[in-house]
TrEMBL record:
SUPFAM superfamilies xrefs: Dimeric alpha+beta barrel (SSF54909), Winged helix' DNA-binding domain (SSF46785)
Record Gene3D superfamilies: 3.30.70.920, Winged helix-like DNA-binding domain superfamily/Winged helix DNA-binding domain
Name this protein carries in UniProt: Lrp/AsnC family transcriptional regulator
Lineage top rank: taxon: Bacteria
Coiled coil: none
Pfam families with a match to the protein in the record: AsnC_trans_reg, HTH_24
InterPro entries tied to this protein: AsnC-type_HTH_dom, Dimeric_a/b-barrel, Tscrpt_reg_AsnC-like, Tscrpt_reg_AsnC/Lrp_C, WH-like_DNA-bd_sf, WH_DNA-bd_sf
UniProt KW keywords: DNA-binding, Transcription, Transcription regulation
Keyword Signal: no
Residue stretches making up the HTH asnC-type domain: 3-64
Transmembrane regions listed in the UniProt entry: none
SMART domains, per database record: HTH_ASNC
């Protein structure tokens, strides 16, 4: 799919605040509200916009602690990795999972109300996934920056 400058502007704007009305977006992009709605519908249908989500303050909903986990597996056989990926994706406290290079095989971002809850999740992970060799945990002392925004250049690359 080819993205023009208007599409790129829209993507940047709605990543910042997806609740903006078509009228508000039209003021910033110089298109009509109906053109904005058509473009957003097309971007969703073509899978450029994967989903709209609300950003929640974790402290206000009882999930104040973030754990960054480096996970090593015993064997990298495709079926064992697929089983682990499926398990990780099904766990609500696990916000992000990255399959990475280096010493770890996966890096996880997990949120939990306390260390006891985190320990319970990790005990279940090890019990349910015998291919997990080991994991190391870093506890976030504070969050300096958190986001999911993908910067979209206004001009097409190349």
């Amino acid at each position: 799919m080819e993205l023009d400058r208007f599409d790129r502007q829209l993507l940047n704007l709605i990543q910042d605040d997806a609740a903006q009305t078509a009228e508000r977006l039209a003021e910033q992009v110089a298109l009509s509200p109906s053109a904005i709605q058509r473009r957003l519908r097309r971007l969703r249908e073509q899978g450029v916009i994967v989903r709209d989500a609300a950003v929640v303050d974790p402290r206000k909903v009882g999930r104040p602690t973030f754990f960054i986990v480096s996970l090593q597996v015993e064997r990298e056989r495709p079926e064992l990795l697929a089983q682990l990926r499926t398990w990780l994706a099904a766990q609500a406290p696990i916000q992000q999972v990255f399959y990475v290079t280096g010493e770890a095989d996966f890096v996880l971002v997990i949120t939990a109300p306390d260390t006891e809850t985190y320990d319970g999740l990790m005990a279940r992970m090890v019990a349910d996934n015998p291919n997990v060799r080991r994991f190391t945990t870093n506890v976030a002392l504070s969050v300096v920056k958190q986001g999911m925004t993908i910067p979209v250049p206004l001009e097409a690359p190349g």
